[in-house]
C-alpha cells in the first residue's frame, strides 16, 4: 500500500492536533511543528508570562529549523513506505501545493483535511488551552487571534475533506 501524507489545514484551535493524535494512534507518524519549534527555545520562554516567547526572531528561527527537520523526517518516512501526518496549519495554498509535490516525489498519496471553525468556538477553545500546559503550545490572546486569522487562506477546490467539529468527515 502506498504511503500517505496527511496535510491538516486549519486555524489555531480548530482541532488539528487532536485529529493528528488520532491518526498517530492508528500507526501514522506524527510530526508537530509547534512541539519541535517550542522545544528548541524553552530557555527563551517565560513560564511566569504564559510561556510567551522572549523575541520574535528567535521564534521564527526555531520554526524554520523545525520545519526543515520535519520535511526531512517526513520524506524519509514516506520513502520507507510509512504514512505521515504533519501537525501544522498549512495556512497558505502555496505551502499546501509544495508539500503535495514533495509527497508525490516520494511516491506518496496526499490527503488534505480542512478544519473550519467559527470565531466564537475558536476563541472558546483557545481560552481553555491558554489555561493549560503551555510548554509546547503558544499562548494566544484575543488580539493575537484576530491578527493571525487575517493570514489564513482556506482551501477551495483543492480536493479537501472537511472535518467538522465532531471530527466527522465530508468531501
The major β-sheet equals: 6 strands, mixed
Shape: globular
Q: What percent of the residues sit in helical stretches (DSSP H or I)?
A: 40-55%
DSSP strand (E) fraction?
A: 15-25%
Based on the structure given, which CATH architecture is correct? Answer: 3-Layer(aba) Sandwich
Rounded mean pLDDT score: 89
Order of helices and strands: EHEHEEHEHEHHEE
Secondary structure tally: strands: 8
How would you explain this protein's 3D organization?
With 171 residues, this protein is of the alpha/beta class. The chain has a single domain, classed as P-loop containing nucleotide triphosphate hydrolases (Rossmann fold), CATH 3.40.50.300. The chain is built from six helices and eight strands, in the order E-H-E-H-E-E-H-E-H-E-H-H-E-E. It has helices spanning 16-25, 33-40, 56-79, 93-105, 119-130, 142-149; strands spanning 4-10, 29-32, 45-46, 52-53, 84-87, 109-115, 161-163, 169-170. The strands form two sheets. It has a six-stranded mixed β-sheet with strand order 2-5-1-6-7-8, with helices on both faces. The longest helix has 24 residues, at 56-79. The mean pLDDT is 89.
